[in-house]
Amino acid sequence: MRDLLLYMTAATVLASPTIPLLANDTVSPARQRAIADDTTWLAKAPFTPKQAKELQQKWAVRLDRPAVYRNTIGMELALLPPGEFTMGRTEEQFDNLLMLVDADPKLKSSRGGQIAWSMLMMPAHAVRLTKPFYMGKAEVTVGQFRNFVEASGYQTEAEQGLNSGVPYKGSTPISTWRKPMAWRKDFKQHDDEPVMHLCWNDCVAFCQWLSNQEEVEYALPTEAEWEYACRAGTTTPWSFGDLGVAEKTAIQHAAWSNSLQKLDVPQRVASREPNPFGLYDMHGNMWEYVADWWHRYSYKESSLNDPTGPAQQSEKNDLRRIIRGSSFDWGRWGGDSAYRMRITQRSNQHPHMSFRVVMRLKDAPQVAEAVDPEDELRRQRRDPGVDSEPVIAALKAGAPTLTSEGQALPKELIIPLSVKQNIDFVLIPAGSFLMGSDHGDKDELPQHRVVISTPFYMARHELTQGQWDAVMGKHAGLAELTKGGDHEMTGPAKAMNMLSWHDCQDYIQKLTQKAEGHRFSLPTEAQWEYACRAGSTTEYHFGDDAGQLGEYAYYQGNMNWPGQPGFGGKAFYHDVGRKRPNAWGLYDMHGGVWEWCADRYDASYYLHAPLADPAGPATGRFRVLRGGSWFRYAKYARSAYRKFFHPEGDGDAVTAYINDFGCRLVINLEGR
After folding, report:
1. Model confidence over 196-255: pLDDT tens digits?
2. How far is it, in rounded angstroms, from Cα 593 to Cα 465?
3. Are 345 and 365 in contact (CB under 8 A)?
4. Lowest-confidence segment of 59-73, 326-340, 574-588 by average pLDDT
5. Measured in whole angstroms, how far is the alpha carbon of residue 399 from the centre of its chain?
6. Please, which pLDDT band fits residue 109 given cuts at 50, 70 and 90?
7. For a Cys-Cys bond, which of 134, 345, 441, 544 suits 200, CB 3.0-4.6 Å?
């Protein structure tokens, strides 16, 4: 399978002759267009440290600005050129990480966690930053923050006695930037150490003050700006090397804890070697806040040009922001260039969070936006027509719609599992439909006609806990989470979750032995969307209005959550069949739990998928899930939305209790 990044790969922009520019504030529109079309101005990774310096100096000359700017509070900022790089963890890096984990008995027990967390950094995707900007060479120091406080009278939230927006009630004295690590007797910081015990709001307040002070925009970097600056032209996991050398050479480059250095307090800024852009402590010392909201699906939806992160916070609604770079008390696992961590934006008692700033250049010339070479193809609907010759031929080639005795296929099949448990299957007729959406992510394009040439049976409901238990016995992971009997999470009619793709295959294998003569399977992605739509062409099987979703689905808009009135559980797992069904009598096709499909995932598969009975790409690391879940926003429950995950993964790793990976089965008839 092609690397997932291909669906966002930028096209080559043709270069034009280099044209001298005027000073920053007097660049004419014509000259701006000239620089935009000239890719010699673009820092396109990979590039060497020497090339990094040359590009920085080249832009300094063209902007008539210094390559390193020193502002009024003594902060030094490096000028970074517009650039293009691969953001996130590549599939090759993912594979290398798993090989390293599997080779170490101590790490192998954490394989599931490594998979789940790596998925937060995927898919790797091309990003182009079209504008030059300055970034702080180091994290903001105690001395620099003191300048802000003394000039403005600002009180941090910790100084106000707040943590996470509520009065602090910890067992130790509250820690502030003035009294850091209050639990450590006589601990003090120097002015050249990174400021700590700040929440995201405090960092933003500093940027606003500095902007007013200097009449230029200071801000937290976007996540894309941060990773671009950290990588500085490198494509290895760390800017100073790969897996094989990072542990040995980190002591020169990263203030983190490993076998060669054990750190329990932050270090003076710029005490290690800088990266090729001249930036210090991008790996280690302190986690650094960035501007973006946290949401685990943001990479799949990311813009190719100048991404700024998701438009809204995650479903947990706890104001989580992204932090980057690892810290003095972490190791290499959190310190690679792609690693992402999340933190509630009003949290301030952790001793390992700080920030660095960017300075934006108003009216600076920029390079042209990148163009995805597949965009034009994605806009071209692939539809020969519902009554076209290819569609009719494909339907005729399908399996007969009668039984071997010449009778019509029964509308339902009931598969008994035990005295109390059955699985009810509904006959889904053969037919064709338009798969995908013009209103979703790139991997839902192009809309294309698909023929389901053979009828099949689909389970009326998502697999339930009772149906799982009847075939497999109690699920160990779910049993551990629900010790003590949590009625909001357990019950025979509740949708089964905490299932990996491989768990589903194990269930199918045992079910086939129990109910011989039936070809049980996970649905193909095409079967799933066809059955979900049930003849509809809208975003949901009931229409386009997400405001009606609560009548048909359990999703973020009507989920129960700890702390809500009348809710006593740790999480909410729904009973199946309580909402309205679709036109074919299938329940919870929207929301509920994510439902595994048989297919491997390829973001560009729709560009070349066959007309009849597509079954997904032949190779690939990841599998498809469909339907959204009880925890996710309405947009993820759309009929066309595609999610991918590693087949060993059994959940998104939001918390131990937020689990939403399940399945529903199909019975395939002869001919498939």
Report:
1. 999 999 999 999 999 999 999 999 999 999 999 999 999 999 999 988 787 788 889 999
2. 12
3. no
4. 326-340
5. 40
6. confident
7. 345
Structure tokens belonging to residue 636: 């993820």
Whether 436 is in a domain gets the answer yes
Q: Same domain, yes or no, for 139 and 212?
A: yes
The predicted model gives 40-56 an average pLDDT of: 97
Asked if residue 347 and residue 403 are part of one domain, the reply reads: no
- Whether residue 177 is found in the same domain as residue 309: yes
Instruction: Retrieve residue 343's tokens.
Output: 């933190």
Predicted confidence at residue 26, as pLDDT, reads 44
DSSP-derived secondary structure letter, 174: P
Prediction pTM value: 0.91
User: Is residue 540 within 8 Å of residue 552, measured between CB atoms?
Assistant: yes
CB 91 within 8 A of CB 121: no
Residue appearing with tokens 């799933």: 528
Computed from CA positions of residues 568, 572, 577, 582, in that sequence, does the dihedral angle turn out positive or negative? positive
Sign of the CA dihedral 242, 247, 253, 255?
A: positive
Residue 456 confidence (pLDDT) above 90: yes
Who's near 433: CB < 8 A, 6+ residues apart? 449, 450, 452, 529, 530, 533, 535, 537
Question: Exposed e or buried b for every residue in 375-394, given b needs 16+ CB within 10 A?
Answer: eeebeeebbeeeeeeebeeb
Return the structure tokens found at 655: 């918390």
Is 176 part of any domain?
yes
In a domain, 450, yes or no: yes
Q: Contact at 8 Å (CB) between 426 and 443?
A: no
The secondary structure of the chain in percent helix, strand, coil, rounded to multiples of 5, reads 25, 15, 55
What is the C-alpha separation between 507 and 501, in angstroms, rounded?
A: 10
- Structural domain for 458, as ranges: 382-668
CATH of the domain at 637: 3.90.1580.10
Tell the residue number behind the tokens 């001249």, with chain if given: 278
Q: Which two tokens stand for residue 453?
A: 């040439």
46: cis peptide before it, omega within 30°?
yes
Q: What is the pLDDT of residue 594?
A: 97
The confidence score (pLDDT) of residue 7 equals 35
Summarize pLDDT for 358-394 with one digit per residue, the tens.
999 999 999 999 999 899 999 999 999 999 999 999 9
Last residue of a domain, one of 311, 330, 360: 360
Q: Which amino acid is at 390?
A: P
Q: How many residues does the chain have?
A: 672
Place of tokens 């032995």: 513
The answer to whether position 277 is within a domain reads yes
Specify whether 49 is located in the same domain as 153: yes
Share of the chain above pLDDT 90, in %: 75
Sequence-distant (≥ 6) Cβ neighbours of residue 214 within 8 angstroms:
71, 72
One domain for residues 342 and 453:
no
Residue at which a domain ends, from 360, 390, 423: 360
144's enclosing H/E stretch is: helix 142-152
Domain count within the chain: 2
Residues 72 and 31 in one domain: yes
Q: What is the pLDDT of residue 3?
A: 41
Q: Are residues 608 and 639 in the same domain?
A: yes
> Which range, of 146-155, 236-245, 623-632, averages the lowest pLDDT?
236-245
The SS3 call for residue 605 is: helix
Mean pLDDT of 297-320: 91
Q: Specify whether 605 is located in the same domain as 500.
A: yes
Which amino acid belongs to residue 35? Answer: I
